Structures are given as C-alpha cells and as structure tokens.
Amino acid sequence: MKRITRTLALAGLLVVTSLPAMSGIAQAAGTVTITGKTPTNYTVLMVGKNGNSTAVKGGKFKLKVSASTAKGASLHLVSSNGTYSGPVVLKYDKKKKSGNTLLSGKSGDVGSIAMKTGYSVAAAKKTTAISTSTKIPVSTTGKPSGAGRMGIPTSTQAKAVRTFGVSKWADGDAPNGADTDKDGLPNTLDIDDDDDGKIDLVDDSNPSKAITTGSLLFLDISKTINLHAGMDETSMQAAIDSIFKSNNNFWIGLGLNTGSQEAPDGVHISCAADVLWCAPSSPATLFGTGTNGAAEKWIDKKADGFGLSLPKGNGPNCDTTSSPMLGGMCSGPSTNFNRQFIPQLPSADVKPGSLFTMNFTKGGAIAKSVAGSLSPYFASVPALKEITVGGQVKNIDYSLKAVNGNGGASGTQGNPIVVPASNKTITLTFWRPQRSGVSVAGEGKYVDMGSLRYGFYVGVNRICDSGAMAPVSSALLSSAGSQEFAHTPLLDTAKDSIPNASNTLSFTVDLSKCEGGTAPTIGASAQMVTLIASSPGNAGIKAYQDFYVKVQ
User: Fold this and answer.
1) What pLDDT is attached to residue 148?
2) Which tens digits make up the pLDDT trace of 175-185?
C-alpha cells in the first residue's frame, strides 16, 4: 500500500508554527497568488500534479507559487492536530453532480472555504484561479467519492478492473499528485489511488508507488497474532501493542524513489505534534538497532529519524546540520531513500491515514516537499488452522502452551509436525492476516487482507523449486511473477473483507523441492519453516509465521 504500503510531513507541514513557509522552494518565473479564507486552526495544503506540496497557515491565507506549480494543483485542509480534513471543492454543479478541484495556474481568490464532513467547499465560483477543464463526480452537496474515506471506495464503488491502468510513469515512477481515480484525493494522499478495491499497500499497479509506506511482521507460531487464532479484538490489540514495543519483530517503513530526477542531498520527515509516531517527541526506535547494543532512537536522529547510521536502505548517509530542517539523510548518487522504525507506541497512536511530509533539500535549502499518508499496516500474520500430512489432519490449537519447552500447539518447536519420509507433500490451511482498519472509511478495527501473495520456505535464502507449491483454494492462483516474488508464487484473488474465520486458504507444498542448496535438509529434529504473505507490489512488505516440522 502503494504500502504501506503510501506519506506526509512538510517539515512542519502540519505544524504551521514551525513551518518554514516554504520560501526556500525555488519559484519559476510567472508567480501566481491564490488567496482565500478558511476556518481557524487549519492548514491549507496545495498538492501539485507532480506531487510537490506547499502549506500555509489557514484563516486568511495567501499562496505564492509559480504558475506551473499552480496549474493542475489541488487544495486541501489539515486540522491543527495533523488530521487530514479533505479536499477543497472549488466549484460544483448540483444538477450534473460534477465538481472542479484543480487550479488553473492563474491568480485569483477562491473566497471563503466552508468545512463539510470530509471535504470543504469554496465560495468563489467565477474566479480565474479555478480550472474548468477537468471535472470529477461529486454528490449533490459537492462531496467527492473519496472524501472522508482517505480514498478507500465503498463496496459499490470498487472496480473489478482498474479504470485507469497506469502502473508506471515515464519519469521513473516520480511522485504524482494527480487524482488518477477522480475521487477528490491526489495519489500521494489516497490509500487506494486507482479505486480498484485494493489498498496501495498490496497493489502492484500503484500510481504513487514512488512514495510508499509499508510494514513487516514476523512471529513464531507460539506467539501468533491473528483474530481467528483464538483471539478477539481486545486481546489482539494487546498483543500487537506488545509487538510494537518489541525488538525488530515489527517495523513500519517509509520510502521514496526519485526516479530519473536529480538526487537531493537531504531527505527529512516531519508531521504535527499530535501525529505521535513521527513527531519530534516520538519514542520510536530504528529497525535494525538494539539487537546487540542500545536501540537507536528516532529523536536522536535530529528528531525526524533520518539522521546518521541508516541500518537498512540504499545509498550512503550523511548529516546535514546546516539544513534548516531538523535533520537529514543524504543520498550521494542514490535516488532511493528509506527508513524503517519500531513505533514503541500503542497501535491506537499509529493511525492509518495520518499525514506526514517528506522534504528534500539541495544545497541546504528545501527544494521540494511531498505530502502523503500512512498506509494501513499488517496487524497480524497468516495463521495456520490445520496441516494435512500423510492423509491426516493436524489441527492447530493455539490455546495449548509449551511447558519447559515441551508440548504446546502442533507446529511449535516442542511439538513439531511429523511428516512421513515416504510422502513429503503437506497441505497448509490457514487464515489470512489482518490489517489495521481505516475508521474514517467505515472499516472495523481490523480487516482480513486480500490480494496478497503467499508462499513457503525452508531457510530464508532457499527458493523452492518450480512446482513445489500448488493452490488448493479456488481463490489462489499460481502466479510466478518476477524473481523478487520467487518465495511467494501464489496470488490471492479475493479482496479485503470483514473478518470471517470460515474464510481460509489452502495450498500444498512438496518439502523435497524446498530442501538442499542454502536450506537445511528436514530430518528427525525440529526444523523451522515459514508460511509467508507479501504485497504483490513490494516483496519487502510482508507478514510471516514460523513453525516446525520433522521427517521420520
């Protein structure tokens, strides 16, 4: 979503008191001025069609940008606590149910902006600042379909097939602020930016996938988290909150690929103080630290997580202390930037749809800012319901706990699944993982995740031979994909759904085709193996369950 899978911070974008007013952004010849008036305690966010973002304090506001930046840009409001308050509909036709959300590239006053639920409407209908060439569908009150839902369509809106089939741009997937699905939200803020019913975290055709947020969760079967594995919402939240504070079992990642554009010399993230997971006071620690030494804290990295010592990612790192921002990660020749962190917060404080901004510096000045939103993340792992070996079904009872390392549920280290040497083909039946729900879209606390890729391995570097896995469930298709997805050759064709324990998936694995090479041979002692789910758009966004088998 795309993951988690999609990002907002504008070096104070949502903290207008600390916003550098974006005066450091170079302006092309032909500056235009957009004025208007909003309710107090809001920030006005302009998102250009190329993804660049500019923010100013609300009330009586004035935006001065180049004509090229303003042309095709959209306006949005953000509350004082960093919550996205929706797009500004500049004008609309009640009878035709069509609206205009884009600027023309000319100066003008959009008038007073009235807040509605999940969107707002401007009063000035005839100003030259409004582009009339592009319209989007709206309700009779001017509400775009994605407003108040972070772009997640209702079940009746979701398309079985993408209506806008662009998965890559000519400019190396450059960040894009266009509204591909015409739901009122630009791609960088839209959790489902092509309106196909797949959140960007799990969508392999994601128009804004150059900016991504994603997550990774991996658990031993004895520590399984899944709503259908003997848990309710309360116990599941307590379990995931505990994992959020663990050492490297869960992380959220922010990433950016600038494509063919000139690489910036610094990348910085910021957000409002109330967006606790990325605020300067965040207790988050950096993924990849703390195992054999002290965990590196988010706040120690110049308060934005992008300071020195990048444990994971591409390109060298440097500190830009002369930058007007809070800190930085420098790229050298690289155009890829990413940072993974462990929230160290309850899941209630890591809200999907919360806004942040990535700021890019060149020569110590802000060259560009790109706003985005946090994608929903894995809140659980795929969980075995049963395993069939030698014609016998082994049910997994998660209520059974090991005593002194012995016993416990089938598949645990003390009670491994016994596979006959004469027939190493097993059938895995399991529940899909859940993701965090997006409450403003009317979703429940958790959602069963569809559209994921699934697979299995013995040893993390061993790719099973071709044909080792075969789907049993009709919802699973064999889909080899690129080498990146060699571990997960099966694709789930179902969409996200309300959690339902009766909805399971099954596939067979021939263990003999997953041994050898870099993987250990499965023998008479317990050998760890893995059931894995990953995003079809990014194999690094995944959740997996480790369990144990032995052959005799």
Assistant:
1) 84
2) 578 888 889 89
Query: ∠ CA 485-500-209 to the nearest 5 degrees?
Result: 35
Structure-block tokens of residue 161: 């097939």
C-beta of residue 378 within 8 angstroms of C-beta of residue 215? yes
Quick one: CA torsion of 228, 191, 269, 261, rounded to 10 degrees? 130
Q: How many CB atoms lie within 10 A of CB 511?
A: 22
> Residue 108: in which H helix or E strand, if any?
strand 108-115
Top pLDDT among 191 and 501 is at 501
**How many angstroms separate the CA atoms of 36 and 178, rounded?**
22
User: Which residue in the block uniquely carries the two structure tokens 């049993």?
Assistant: 472
Whether 319 and 308 have beta carbons less than 8 Å apart is answered as: yes
The C-alpha atoms of residue 440 and residue 539 are separated, in whole angstroms, by 28
pTM exceeds cut of 0.70: yes
Query: Residues 351-389: pLDDT tens digits?
Result: 888 888 777 766 656 677 788 888 888 999 999 999 999
Q: What is the dihedral of CA 440, 445, 448, 449, to 10 degrees?
A: 50
SS3 for 242?
Answer: helix
Q: What's the token pair of residue 415? A: 């009670």
CA distances from 153 to 35, 194, 210 (A): 32, 10, 22
Q: Where are the beta strands (DSSP E) in 379-444?
A: 383-389, 392-395, 402-403, 406-407, 417-419, 425-431, 434-436
Residue 190 · residue 8 · CB < 8 Å? no
Q: Higher pLDDT residue, 276 or 264?
A: 276
